[in-house]
Amino acid sequence: MKKLWTSDPCYGRYGVNGSLCSFLIYLSEVPNWCPLLPGRAIPPGVTDTSAVKTKFKACNLFECALCTGVFLVRLEQFKWVHQRIRSMEQIWVDAGRSLSAKYNLTERKAKHILVHPGALTDESGFKIANSAFSGGPLGELVQWSDLIATLYILGHDLHLSASIPDLKVSLGIMRTGCPPRPVVTPNLIYTDIVGLRQIQAALRTSWVKYKCMIRVLDSFGTEPDFNHPAWAQQHNLTSYFGGLNLTPMQFNTMFPHTPDNTFLGFVVQHQLSSEERRQLESTKRQNQALVYGKRATFWKDKEAYLDVIHRYLEIHGTVDNTAPIPAYVKNHGIVKGSEVQVLLRQSKVFVGLSFPYEGPAALEAIANGCAFLNPRLDPPHSRLNTKFFEEKPTIREVSSQNPYAEAIGEPYVWTVDIQNSTDVERALSAILNQTIEPYLPYEFTCEGMLQRVNTLIENQDFCTNTKIWPPLSALQVVKAEVNTSCKQACREKGLICEPAFFPHLNSADNLTKSVHTCSYNSSEHCVFQSDPLLFSCVRSEESLIRICPCRDYIKDQIALCKACV
């Protein structure tokens, strides 16, 4: 093995990485030359590991992970992912222990979960992983990192795919030069839109067998009107990212954009190492601002805005050194995430430049006690007026650089018109006249993500449809007047629209029980939805009053109702 493991790429696809640990696992589980290692053995008489009860991983995350072949750390695609998880490993383990102590999680079953980030593969041509250390976008990598860590800590059996050949081996449609191991049918597949198209191309017509297992990581969301191929074609809503014909809740978003999709989320990294904490103990928060923008294009036409801020604060940046930025900016260049955390804890204001939209950085700032200056977008940006959103399968209007942060509001987030110096100065004066404590919603902590993803995995079922989840006891029916969406109507009542309840309400008997004014006379009638893929929380109608299924939610854990945990 030491001499020949590099002779065929298939060894790498089985998790062999040159370490003795990976050799032993390969020899015990692929050609079965050696006994199974402790902790990996399947109990006698059990042939399907989906029947094995899961346990939270309480060991050092990466000691465990490297010895299970979960992380193909030798691959460039996962270098940044590996670095992020390693920097947070103890936080993940502690969060797993904490959640396990609070809830009875002993009846969960381990699932085989295939993770295939299509946009990270070389075949996609996007080169996201290549640019991760030089100022490229990190949102997708953050979410993949946190999902992989979550699934592993929850005790599931992960199969990580980094290329189309990896994918084909995982799905049992390609043989390799290595002794073949039994192909395990996944219970769940996490991918993205690029990866879904790769899966469809690899499996051809047989991909339908896996369709209900798919969960698509989709940063900005996919609304039902764009997801339905025929409807999208008929209403001129087609795009590369739409027409996938999945149940809308199979799309997993970074932020809770639309109730039609599932909020998967990510974790806001705000913890520092013991060494970094020691460095900060002797450092007071400085009279400085840190600008949110790693690329020169983000700074274009923002000098007047920055000039106003510079009158109040020393300005720092973490931008490519070749960028033409104001001379008064103290630029640190592209730095590691841990260095950004230090800068945030030293700064009083984190300055948004209007782009990138809805990134993790705004929440990282307020988690470190640094107020976020959030540029208002007026008129709101959407696919109708902004090139960035042209191909996005959503009609959502983005009212600021980070609408989720906007909803958190003052004193943590100050949404301002950056063209109006008076508005900017008002916010700066208020920020500098108070002490802002760190704040982080529970849903963006490690424990919050573990709770949410565990609940979703255990309860969301698009294959059998044998139960309604969330439970029907959470249903609250609300009327939406003409030109009002169910999302709006539910929100006005302090609730959230729940698409899982649409099929229940979409019957004469259940509707009549819930809404006593729905009669069948000459002046009033009820219209039902004939196509379940077109149930929509976000659509409004010019001539119809909508009957909306709403539910409550846990504060700072919007994906879950109060009866869901």
Task: Kindly describe this structure.
- With 565 residues, the chain is of the alpha/beta class.
- The protein has 3 domains: 9-263, no CATH class; 274-439, Glycogen Phosphorylase B (Rossmann fold, 3-Layer(aba) Sandwich); 468-551, no CATH class.
- It contains 21 helices and 16 strands.
- Strands 7, 8, 9, 10, 11, 12 and 13 form a 7-stranded mixed β-sheet that branches. A 6-stranded parallel β-sheet has the order 2-1-3-4-5-6, with helices on both faces. Strands 14-16-15 form a 3-stranded antiparallel β-sheet, covered by helices on one side.
- Helix 5 crosses helix 18.
- It starts with 8 loop residues before the first helix and ends in a 14-residue tail after the last strand.
- Residues 43-50 and 60-74 have low confidence and may be disordered.
What characteristics describe this protein?
31% helix; 21 helices; 16 strands; Rossmann fold; seven-stranded mixed β-sheet; globular; 565 residues; single chain; 3 domains
